[in-house]
Specification:
The complex is a heterodimer of chains A (277) and B (259). Chain A is mainly alpha-helical. Chain A is built from twelve helices and no strands. Helices cover 76% and strands 0% of the residues of chain A. The longest helix of chain A has 31 residues. Classes of the chains: A mainly alpha (277), B alpha/beta (259).
């Protein structure tokens, strides 16, 4: 097997060693880069993580003050419920945008290192997404769990929250692979991606209820992979009824699709990275 | 064991201006789009290095010496030809490249070691030995930015040479630190030299090449000019450099004296 694979590569003129997508070193490298990212972000203090969870709370309060009077009626007239819905949306979309935006510069920033040692490229975006996921899980998720238990007293809801979270992390990893590859070839990727995230921000019902979207456009909202993730998470935390099963399926399918797409794209571009970093 | 057979390497030249979407779209619209130019940096390189051999690459700047090291450690992939490397490769990085100044010494040992290709368990087991060699045991939890540059260099050297590699790649700079550490690092290099390790160095220090290497590869403009015993190749190289210098001088004189 080994010999045959070697022979095939020999014909293609490729170094035999740099081949498998999941490099055996990948786990170790992602591990140290993740630790570096998290340690620098928090300087070893738990307060840093708590702090990062506070900022969406503050933003949700501002949204509630301004939009609450208008939108609370979609939440049974409750400002608190509207504020909680906004908070959940902010936390999820905030994670996605922060992680994938940071990915768009991560390979170029480490170009010096990549020119000296052989490091699996995908370790950089994956470590970045992991560090943001850690922040999400350690900073904001505990609050969501408590909220869910208080609102509907159903541990099944808490358990089912893992579904939209798994979908979200797949989605971010896939998109992170895409933005990091794009960042290598186009140095203005961060600016262009900012526009894309604005589109995402507007088309995701974060601070407005999905119900106000005109029926003709509502069908298209489903295309936005964050839509199903945000909606299922909200239903699970804030309401006593379970979201429809197809919503879980949609969230997972979209997350898996973006991850597969990102991995395929990254893999096909990888050989050309060294000409650009 | 390192075997390069018919290795060619083309790289995109760096003068391109279409590294972002905006300028590329503008170039397309104004019809000034062109294919990226490529430059041959290695041409037809055939090189066999047996396990345990000590090899030096010599030649002028831009000859492709460092590029060969990059191909050997897998950073660059040949455009055509085959690069086969058996054994674990450790590049001796420029001192401190790969350190994160904000992290502690201990964390940096893990980071640097993993980047060099060691697995986590090996590094954790070797941590004390590495710190002891670098004489930094009391600085475990200090951030690397608090170390002097000499201390950081010692740490880098200690990790890189502790990495139990079969093939060591050295791009210049063999000795680091103050006088006492220099003697110590020298001894470790000697030990590596005498152990059955393959060492490939790029060096402009011809005296060192002559005294320490078994095989010399002379390169110029991406090609191998000659391979052989150090005495012979270094002499030929020095003669060629001298001749080139004399010719350049004569030409300069020629130009300055209008006939």
């Amino acid at each position: 097997m080994q010999a045959r694979r070697g022979a095939r590569r020999e014909r293609r003129g490729v170094v035999a060693r740099r081949a498998p997508f999941f490099d055996e070193r990948l786990r170790d490298v992602v591990g140290v880069l993740f630790a570096q990212n998290v340690k620098i972000r928090y300087r070893g203090s738990v307060l840093g993580i708590v702090w990062s969870a506070l900022s969406p709370l503050g933003m949700a309060a501002v949204y509630t003050a301004i939009f609450g009077p208008t939108f609370a009626r979609y939440y049974g007239g409750s400002h608190v419920l509207y504020g909680a819905a906004v908070y959940i949306g902010l936390v999820l979309i905030g994670f996605f945008i922060a992680a994938t935006s940071e990915c768009s510069t991560v390979l170029v920033q480490n170009g010096g290192l990549l020119n000296k040692v052989r490091i699996p490229f995908e370790a950089f975006p994956l470590a970045t997404v992991s560090a943001h996921a850690f922040q999400l899980l350690a900073g904001s998720v505990p609050l969501l769990l408590v909220l869910s238990l208080v609102m509907n007293r159903d541990p099944l809801h808490v358990l089912l929250l893992t579904v939209p979270f798994a979908a979200l992390i797949m989605l971010a990893a896939g998109m992170g692979l895409i933005t990091s590859a794009a960042g290598v070839f186009f140095r203005d990727t961060p600016h262009l991606y900012e526009l894309a995230t604005f589109l995402l921000w507007v088309t995701t019902p974060v601070f407005y209820p999905a119900a106000i979207v005109p029926a003709r456009l509502a069908h298209f909202l489903v295309i936005n992979p964050l839509y199903a993730i945000v909606q299922t998470s909200r239903d699970l935390v804030l309401t006593a009824n379970l979201p429809p099963w197809w919503m879980f399926g949609l969230a997972l399918a979209e997350g898996a699709l973006v991850l597969a797409l990102g991995a395929a794209l990254f893999r096909s571009m990888r050989a050309r990275f060294m000409d650009h970093v | 064991m390192i075997s390069l057979r018919g290795v060619n390497l083309d790289r995109r030249t760096r003068e391109e201006f279409d590294d972002d979407v905006k300028s590329r779209v503008i170039a397309l619209l104004t019809g000034r789009a062109r294919k990226a130019r490529r430059k041959t940096v290695l041409a037809d390189v055939d090189l066999e290095i047996a396990a345990g051999e000590k090899v030096a690459l010599i030649g002028p700047n831009g000859a492709g010496k460092s590029t060969i090291l990059k191909v050997i450690c897998g950073v660059l992939t040949p455009t055509s030809g085959v690069a086969e490397v058996r054994g674990r490769v450790a590049p001796l990085l420029e001192l401190g490249a790969g350190f994160n100044p904000e992290l502690s010494v201990v964390d940096n040992v893990a980071l640097y070691g993993v980047l060099l290709g060691l697995d986590r368990r090996t590094i954790d087991a070797r941590l004390d030995a590495i710190l002891q060699f670098a004489e930094l045991e009391e600085y475990r939890q200090y951030p690397v930015r608090a170390l002097s540059s000499g201390m950081a260099a010692r740490l880098g050297f200690a990790i890189a040479t502790d990495a139990d590699a079969d093939i060591l790649l050295v791009d210049e700079a063999l000795s680091v630190g103050d006088e006492s550490f220099r003697a110590k690092s020298r001894r470790r290099i000697d030990a590596l030299w005498h152990a059955h390790r393959t060492v490939v160095i790029v060096s402009h220090d011809l005296a060192l090449v002559r005294s320490m290497c078994e095989k010399v590869v002379w390169m110029d403009r991406g090609r191998i000019v000659a391979v052989g015993r150090p005495g012979e190749i270094v002499d030929r190289y020095v003669r060629a450099v001298d001749e080139a210098a004399v010719n350049a001088l004569l030409r300069a004189v020629d130009i300055q004296q209008p006939r």
